[in-house]
Amino acid sequence: MTKKKFPLKRLLEFYDEVLSLPHRTEVARELRDEEDLFLLLLYSDMLGIPNPAFYYTLELYPHIIEKFHEWHLRMGMEKSPLEGIRCC
User: What angle do the packed helices 24-42 and 61-74 form, to 10 degrees?
Assistant: First the structure.
């Protein structure tokens, strides 16, 4: 009869997994909401909302264009809803 050892590190990983499992979707939703708010802040001037930092946020445009594309597809829009942004 052989006794199988259960390493402590593996036990801690399992414990962490059990604790985080029910909150995983909640955390993912919170992160997605924060990204949506960030996109709104970046493109607020194009939506007609005055943004005093628009000049500086314009520099982020090349880095954010893929996330914007994912966002409008997730919202059910085939094409970009903003005239100034060509992502598709």
Answer: 120
- How far apart, in Å, are the Cα atoms of 25 and each of 22, 41, 66, 76? 7, 24, 22, 21
* pTM for the whole structure: 0.60
The alpha carbon of residue 11 and the mean position of all alpha carbons in its chain are separated, in whole angstroms, by: 31
**Burial code of 2-31, b = ≥16 C-beta within 10 A, e = fewer?**
eeeeeeeeeeeeeeeeeeeeeeeeeeeeee
3-state secondary structure of 20: helix
**Helix, strand, coil percentages for the chain (3-state, nearest 5):** 65, 0, 35
Give the model confidence (pLDDT) of 18-52 as tens digits: 888 888 888 899 999 999 888 888 888 878 888 88
Q: Give the rounded distance of the alpha carbon of 9 from its chain centre.
A: 30
